[in-house]
What does this fold into?
Amino acid sequence: MLKYALLGFLTYGDMTGYDLKQNLDHSTQFFWQAEQSQIYRTLKGLEADGLVTSQVEEQDDRPNKRIYHLTEAGHVDFHNWVSTPTQDISLHKDAFLLKVFFSAENDRDEFRAQLLLQRRLHERQADLYREDIAKLIQVASTEHNKQAALFWEATRRFGERYTQMYIAWINDVLDMLDNTTD
Amino acid sequence: MLKYALLGFLTYGDMTGYDLKQNLDHSTQFFWQAEQSQIYRTLKGLEADGLVTSQVEEQDDRPNKRIYHLTEAGHVDFHNWVSTPTQDISLHKDAFLLKVFFSAENDRDEFRAQLLLQRRLHERQADLYREDIAKLIQVASTEHNKQAALFWEATRRFGERYTQMYIAWINDVLDMLDNTTD
DNA sequence: CGATCCATGTAAGTTGTTACATGATTCG
DNA sequence: CGAATCATGTAACAACTTACATGGATCG
It folds into this structure.
């Protein structure tokens, strides 16, 4: 899947591995992340498969760049992916939910503290979606890709809803605890 | 993390790798999954680390069982994990969101169809949470672990909220599409 | 009589994480 | 003057997936 994230960004224009990492960190991070090392490895694979080409641009004051370019085959592959329906629901892993599931083994006050901590973390995240990410999309969309902005905004709203849901759920669990005569 | 899921289930009683797979599939599947092969491999590691012990029970009509048992060290390790706060938000990967992000490259009608498909899938999932999972928890909680039922119910409610949120978000995106003069 | 359940395991491959290594430039 | 930015890469390891292999029992 990282493959398609990289091909997707390359449809916006030629980029280095470094640029791609920046893009992932600033826009898809909330639903798709990758380490730098993995990005470079995947790019090599894509080049071996003929989906991208690369050329080195020499620089004096900075490290040389290897700039990647989407080939026709890469464009076809990407297009094929984006137009093929996703047939199932994405599976998620959430370490905190796993911990909640087994928290009968935990002290009640300690558990309550953990809920409050998670609530705080998600509240901070919610601010990020409402402010920084919203701004980022506005700037990026006026600069170039106006068509794409609609879809970026759609994913931003998902993030906003997700964090709101998470916070509401934590409050629900806190209520459950309060209403239990233990 | 799978480590702690396995140790957690073993606090409920001795079990085989097969039993653990069943438990994962029927209760934590929505926020933690694992393949059978990975479970067996992880169990070996846990035994090597002295967190579990195992003994083979011979059976005539069925394959022999290897029954795992939590050691004192395993119990301590698990307890330590469950009582240590989760300091950050779990990162999620969602292939459909990735596709949405890049769907400017896709045909509008095709995209709309994909949204409707995902909505259908999540509606089915919502039914599961409301009916099957709710029943499962009721049965399990009267049978033994009454303390734990509260926490199982908490995670079930997360699943219910999550699917509801997902459906509401899809409706939101559909509205966005309708209100765009393209 | 074919599918599913029970029950374990290996092998090969892919993906993802963490750490290491380099080195000039720019910003606070 | 120390931290961050730019920019690439390798190496080792850990985690996860897919496929293969076995074989009786039971159920529809």
